[in-house]
Design goal:
mitochondrion; about 20% helix; oxoglutarate dehydrogenase (succinyl-transferring) activity; Kgd4/YMR-31; flat; 3 helices; mainly alpha
């Protein structure tokens, strides 16, 4: 297939509309002049420690931490159960006997109904 390939200039399939607005000289002049971000605060904080004392991210960052009040022990009310093994026996799985296990393992092909 390579011998049949015609050597020609590559033409991209995407056609861009309009004129290019970003040239190399425009970009380099924007980068070389430092300026603050448009949403940046007017003045920087005095120190990082002072900033951390006032900042709150998911709660206070200071050394004073309020403890939650003690709720005591948690126990289920009568008729409520936290674990399935604590339920009455009528809610437990039935035990399989050996004959039933053999029927399941055989696939049920030799069962007569």
């Amino acid at each position: 297939m390579n011998p049949t390939r015609v050597v020609a200039k590559h033409v991209p399939l995407i056609k861009f509309l309009g004129k290019r607005t970003h040239s190399a000289k425009n970009i380099s002049s924007d980068i070389s002049t430092p300026h603050t971000h448009s949403q940046a605060p007017a003045a920087l904080p005095d120190s990082f420690v002072q900033y951390r004392l006032r900042a709150q991210q998911h709660g206070p960052l200071g050394a004073t931490v309020l403890k939650a009040p003690s709720k005591g022990s948690i126990a289920p009310v009568a008729g409520e159960y936290f674990l399935t093994r604590d339920l009455p026996s009528r809610f437990h799985y039935t035990k399989l006997d050996q004959a039933e296990i053999e029927e399941i393992n055989s696939g049920g092909a030799d069962l007569l109904f």
